[in-house]
Design goal:
Length: 224
């Protein structure tokens, strides 16, 4: 069981401006996924659809970019930072994207409620909070139990793609996946393909580049 008492995110929300409230009121009913809803995913998402989940999308730059480049692919983004959700919702509207849906909340709640019957071709986790102090390692999102839980919703031969600029977190991720049967590290092969095909941008990606920090791009393929 996942330990619900350990927080894996930092709540950075504050009182919203009227413009952000307007965005939520206008676009959340169209693009938002409500955990209280009973959604029939078999009708909501075609079984033939290539489906990508992004956990902790921040302001949604990568989510929006991928959706614009791949309009035949469906995306679900999870985030708890409401200003980031507002920014993302507004961009979805501006770019007339009909292949993104947003969930507000913690990823653990997303998994354990009524979203169990949906299967992803890829799960992206870009720049999760590194919690670099050793006493906070337990707060890191990527833990053995979490990956085992969410991997049930990853199709066979599907990928986890994780980006971090923390060497400590990078080593932690490798240890986690090496302790779980059924995954193969495909980072070297996939990175050449991924960054050649996609125009990639997030604020954290740019900040790491400015600080001349190395960015670790990790791909694990589900083999069984």
């Amino acid at each position: 069981m996942i330990n619900k008492s350990i927080k894996t995110f930092r709540l950075r929300s504050r009182k919203l401006t009227q413009s952000k409230l307007d965005i939520l009121n206008l676009y959340w009913p169209i693009f938002g996924l409500d955990i209280k809803q009973k959604i029939n995913f078999e009708s909501y998402f075609s079984k033939k659809s290539f489906l990508i989940l992004e956990i902790g999308f921040g302001y949604g730059e990568s989510l929006i970019s991928f959706a614009r480049q791949n309009r035949n692919i469906r995306f679900i983004g999870i985030e708890i930072y409401i200003p980031g959700i507002c920014f993302c919702l507004n961009k979805i509207h501006l770019f007339n994207l009909n292949n993104i849906n947003i969930f507000y909340g913690d990823a653990l709640n997303f998994l354990e409620n009524n979203f169990k019957d949906i299967f992803f071709n890829r799960i992206n986790i870009f720049f999760p909070d590194p919690w670099n102090k050793r006493k906070h390692f337990k707060r890191r999102l990527i833990q053995k139990n979490f990956i085992k839980k969410i991997s049930k919703n990853l199709v066979l031969n599907g990928f986890f793609h994780i980006l971090t600029d923390s060497y400590s977190y990078f080593k932690h991720i490798l240890i986690v996946f090496n302790e779980i049967n059924g995954f193969k590290n495909q980072s070297k092969k996939m990175n050449v393909y991924f960054f050649h095909k996609n125009k990639f941008y997030t604020r954290f990606f740019d900040k790491a580049k400015v600080k001349k920090k190395y960015i670790y791009s990790i791909f694990f393929k589900k083999k069984f």
